[in-house]
Amino acid sequence: MNSEVPNLKKLILKLFVAFIVLPSVVAGSMYWLNEHGFFNINQVEVLLVDSQGQVNFYSPMADRLEKQMLQFKGQSLWHVKLSEVVATLDSQNWIETHTISRSWPSVLQIKIKPHAVKLVYLGKNGKYMPIIADGSFLDSVDSKQAPDVTLLEGDVFANKKELRQKAVKVLKEIPAEGSFSKKTISEIRYDSKDGFSMTLMATGIQVKIGEEQVALKSARVAQVVDYLQTRQFDARVIDANLSKKVLVRLRNGP
Question: What is the pLDDT of residues 129-150, one digit of tens each?
Fold first, then answer.
């Protein structure tokens, strides 16, 4: 019994050191370091992730954002108000999602996933207005900065977000590769009678495709394009906006 008492005292002392003294020392050290600026933010990293091949378009925006984030430089990494960081990020209409992390001892790291630009609209002022999946415009840019995507033509799109969104959905149904594909289309137009129509980049052929069954119509158009190329026919219109057939108008025809 007598030998057990000292052992118990030693155990209690060890527990006291482990759970009281050491945490207090660590907390005190951290507090001292924090008060002397050891954890002050000296760098804010803005990293673009999953930019879907549009990094050249988004890099200038990321650079501007990084400069905005300098307002948090010098603040303690412990006490920086992440709600203010989030508010700054949420004010950027080009950001789809973001994550914020602390990289100890003094780096604030922000990972940005930008919206994918689906189309570009050419405004009357000559500026190019990138369009994202929901039909919203991003800030306008000049031709050198515009991302390499299909052009949306026509005043009808200027004030109709839902129509722009519909154009994005129609383009999504068109294959990425092939004789008639996203890569072969230079611009998209719309009118109330025929719906959506596309201009082929290489030949200037106008393809009327409407709004429904776009994937099915695209396959038919691709077959017609292959046929025209094989026979070296010079078409000006391919009208796929029909129920079961495709109508072709040649350049020297009616």
Answer: 999 999 999 999 888 888 999 9
Amino acid identity for residue 197 in this structure = S
Task: Give domain 119-250's CATH number out of 3.40.50.10960, 3.40.1210.10, 3.90.580.10, 3.90.1150.10.
Answer: 3.40.50.10960
How far is the C-alpha of 224 from the C-alpha of 222, rounded, in Å? 5
Beta 128-131 vs 150-152: how paired, if at all? unpaired
Q: What is the DSSP string of 214-229?
A: HHHHHHHHHHHHHHHH
Pairing between β-strand 235-239 and β-strand 247-250 as defined by DSSP bridges: antiparallel
User: Got the DSSP string for 40-86?
Assistant: B--EEEEEE---TT-HHHHHHHHHHHHHHGGGGTTSBTTT--HHHHH
Look at residue 167 and tell me whether its pLDDT is greater than 50: yes
pTM for the structure as a whole: 0.81
Cα separation, 88 vs 211, whole angstroms = 38
Q: How far apart are CA 190 and CA 208, in angstroms?
A: 9
CB atoms within 10 A of CB 245: 8
- Domain ranges within the chain, ordered by starting residue: 43-114, 119-250
